Hints:
Elements: H1 2-8, H2 14-29, H3 35-51, H4 57-73, H5 76-92, H6 97-109, H7 113-132, H8 142-157
Amino acid sequence: MYRQAAATDSLSPEPPSRLAQVAIRHWQFNPVKEAARFDEAVEYQRQANSLDPQSPWGHRTLAMWYADRYRRYEKVEDGISAEEAMSQAVKRYPASAALQSDLAIVQATVGKSQQAAETASQAIALDRINREEGHSDKWLEAPTLERLEKILSPAKETP
Length: 159
């Protein structure tokens, strides 16, 4: 059905994004048996991203998938891809505390401690602004703030 929708409305990012979600669910359920589904999901999501080039959210989706695969298999290229995709998301919406925090967490996950600390500081600063301005829909949740503080902790201890 989504394939038919993609063919019918080739300008909408929705059908390839849905196809990507279907493929990634197969991979998440059985990553060994469905290994090829990861690449299929990435390809569909990249198609969706190209149809909505200003949106950060498809890039964030890719980053989360690559970060998940990095945590499972610790392949350096997955870590690089996760950081690159998350950086593209932040580039499209730099004032998002949520995207900045996601980037910091990805950077910390792949061992880029100094960059993670800088990005975590930026996320916390944006969250403070959101709180001061009453943008409660953009506040970072307490567990996210705690994680960002943990990312900053080693950086604070370094002389």
